[in-house]
Amino acid sequence: MPPTHHISSTSRALYRVFVLPNLRSTSNGIPVQFAPAFAPTYGPPSIPIGPVPHHQQQVRHKSWAPKDTRRHALSDYFVLDSAINAPRVNFVDAHGTFHKDMATLDALNSFDKVTHHLVQVTEGRVDEDGKHDPLYPPVCRVVSKIDLRAQHARKVELARKQALGVTGPPQKNLELNWAMGEGDLKHRLNKLREFLEEGRKVEVLLGPKKRGRKATGEEAQEVMEKVMGTVEECKGAKEVKREGTVGGILTVVFEGMEVKGAKGEGAVEEQRVETREERRERKRLERMRKEGVAEAQ
């Protein structure tokens, strides 16, 4: 006789109570014990299987923005080296020394072209015939290729954002506390000044220190006065929003002056990406040029 398998009544009872209710039947109604081992299951029989109504279907759409494959050369954003067509220039060397009314060829031969470029900072004046005015030559300076590449990357990024409809530089956020040390506060205020001079919107969050000493009312007021003093030093900067109280949680939004009335294509981008050191140097060169013209007259 073939061997028989004896299953106790206890095992059968446990199987019926705990195992059998959890088994899923196949879609064609075949009992579980006769269904193939790897037959697909579709949920308990009590749930009807059918097509999903059209109004309940979720369709996901994915779109891709056109990739900018243009070649962004330095010459597209800067006038440099052999592209400077003025015969004479006001020249600033790599050490920051100003040389008035220097031959352009001499300026080009005065630095290492492997590591630096000669960049035209300001345009000179020309007459009706297109000839350069000797009293107002362009100002050119020697810039390292590393620094120029960094400026170029900022210009390309700004142009990309403007093409996408993002106007103006992105907003910056600064966090200060009322009991902040003098050194840390000075560093944050310098950052605030830098952002405002770039024409950015800056959100300043001031609050009490989470741990440690709490500032007095006079100390909190002094910090607020320093913040407002820094904003007043930035020409055209203004406060646009304020929420909270001095000494507690205070949020103040400042906005730098938007550069308007720039001459020439790309002048707005040039002024926005210009660093503070470059801006100071440009203003100093303009003053020296005006003084030189006054002496000549």
UniProtKB/TrEMBL annotation:
Entry keyword set: Initiation factor, Protein biosynthesis
Listed SUPFAM superfamilies: Translation initiation factor IF3, C-terminal domain
Residue stretches of biased makeup (Basic and acidic residues): 269-297
Disordered: annotated segments: 264-297
Any one Gene Ontology cellular component term annotated for this protein: mitochondrion
GO MF terms, alphabetically ordered: ribosome binding; translation initiation factor activity
Superkingdom of this protein's organism: Eukaryota
GO biological process: mitochondrial translational initiation; ribosome disassembly
Gene3D superfamilies: Translation initiation factor 3 (IF-3), C-terminal domain (3.30.110.10), Translation initiation factor 3 (IF-3), N-terminal domain (3.10.20.80)
Protein family: Belongs to the IF-3 family.
Name of protein: Translation initiation factor 3 N-terminal domain-containing protein
